[in-house]
């Protein structure tokens, strides 16, 4: 008899950040954690598709899709100063992102509001990592699936808080939803840390959509945001790829869905 665990869907959550958690950093008014969730079975086909796009424009696959350089047309993306090439690339990128099967989750800290509540960088790390890990656990529970977390490593301090957040749920469960720690241990099996040099396309997607989330949040405040071809495309895609709670689900699943917020703004 096959073990029931082998029949569960396996998901990966790739996490990237935008901005810094330094509450006094005037060049970074937001701190954003961006999570890209994908079924393990979809990863290879998505990597191949992305590699074909990279080879088409650069002649090799060792390109990292990075929003900041992309919209600034810097470094590898200087080729986009040719508007014809830029438009053609955006068409290819849009098709890739639209039809690849993944969903996005975000936790956004408005540091002006955080400062008013006397938050510091430690509180920002604790709150954001806890919420993103919790949301991933909840979505896995709705499908009785298993998952693993992959984080783009930045600093030992930040990485510690991811370990801390997952460790808490592995030890304590989610008491308010009556999910014990054994269920969490069956649900999230590992956490690991990578760099951009690993060339994981999922990490790159998390980076692209972190910028889109920033544009959405800032625009929602009525503030001016860059409104170029790239930004318009990514904002449109964001509405398609962000995880949306279903309006109807069985009672057991709905109690998890009701606890989820895929575009969470902190502090609340």
Notable characteristics:
globular; alpha/beta; Nucleotidyltransferase, domain 5; 268 residues; six-stranded mixed β-sheet
How would you explain this protein's 3D organization?
The chain is of the alpha/beta class. The chain has one domain: 2-Layer Sandwich (Nucleotidyltransferase, domain 5). The chain contains ten helices and six strands, in the order ββαααβααβααβαααβ. It has a six-stranded mixed β-sheet, with helices on both faces. Helix 1 (43-58) packs antiparallel against helix 3 (83-99) and helix 3 (83-99) runs parallel beside helix 9 (229-241). It is globular and about 55 Å long. Residues 1-5 have low confidence and may be disordered.
Beginning-to-end CA distance, first to last residue? 48 Å
Radius of gyration: 19 Å
Main beta sheet: 6 strands, mixed
Strand order of the largest sheet: 5-4-1-2-3-6
- Give the count of helical stretches: 10
The chain-level mean pLDDT equals 93
Beta-strand level of the residues, as a percent range?
A: 15-25%
- What is the correct CATH architecture? 2-Layer Sandwich
CATH superfamily: Ribonuclease H-like superfamily/Ribonuclease H
Helix content: 40-55%
Into how many domains do the coordinates divide? 1
Total strand segments: 6
Order of helices and strands: EEHHHEHHEHHEHHHE
The best one-word shape is globular
CATH topology: Nucleotidyltransferase, domain 5
Helix/strand-derived category reads alpha/beta
What's the level 1 CATH class? Alpha Beta
Low-confidence stretches: 1-5
């Amino acid at each position: 008899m096959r073990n029931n665990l082998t029949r569960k869907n396996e998901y990966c959550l790739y996490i990237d950040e935008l901005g810094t958690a330094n509450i006094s950093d005037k060049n970074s008014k937001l701190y954003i954690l961006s999570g890209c969730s994908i079924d393990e079975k979809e990863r290879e086909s998505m990597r191949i598709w992305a590699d074909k796009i990279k080879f088409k424009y650069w002649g090799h696959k060792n390109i990292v899709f990075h929003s900041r350089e992309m919209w600034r047309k810097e470094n590898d993306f200087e080729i986009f100063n040719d508007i014809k090439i830029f438009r053609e690339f955006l068409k290819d990128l849009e098709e890739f992102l639209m039809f690849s099967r993944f969903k996005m989750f975000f936790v956004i800290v408005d540091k002006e509001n955080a400062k008013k509540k006397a938050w510091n960088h430690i509180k920002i790390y604790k709150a954001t990592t806890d919420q993103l890990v919790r949301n991933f656990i909840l979505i896995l529970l709705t499908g009785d699936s298993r998952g693993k977390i992959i984080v783009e490593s930045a600093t030992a301090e930040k990485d510690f808080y991811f370990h801390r957040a997952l460790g808490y749920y592995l030890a304590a469960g989610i008491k308010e939803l009556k999910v014990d720690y054994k269920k969490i241990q069956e649900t999230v099996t590992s956490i690991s840390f990578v760099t951009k040099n690993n060339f994981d396309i999922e990490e790159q997607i998390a980076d692209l959509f972190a910028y889109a989330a920033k544009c959405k949040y800032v625009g929602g405040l009525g503030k001016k945001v860059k409104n170029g071809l790239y930004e318009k495309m990514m904002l449109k895609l964001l509405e398609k790829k962000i995880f949306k709670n279903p309006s109807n689900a069985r009672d057991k699943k709905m109690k998890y869905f009701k606890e989820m917020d895929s575009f969470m703004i902190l502090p609340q």
